[in-house]
Amino acid sequence: METFFGRLKNEMFYGLEKDYPSFESFSKAIAEYIDYYNNTRIQAKTKWMPPSKFREAYDGSLIIQF
Length: 66
Hints:
- 55% of the residues lie in helices and 0% in strands.
- The protein is mainly alpha-helical.
């Protein structure tokens, strides 16, 4: 969770605070980012798949080698 929140702040908040004129627009941006993070954003640790696709592919038998 700490990694997720750190990335969220770095990618969509720091330096962009003035881009959100209201709490509602900021809340909507957070919801969109969470959807992007779970369904679109690829990562090396998930074998270059979005997290949702990685979970589907491994269907509970998750084995990650570091």
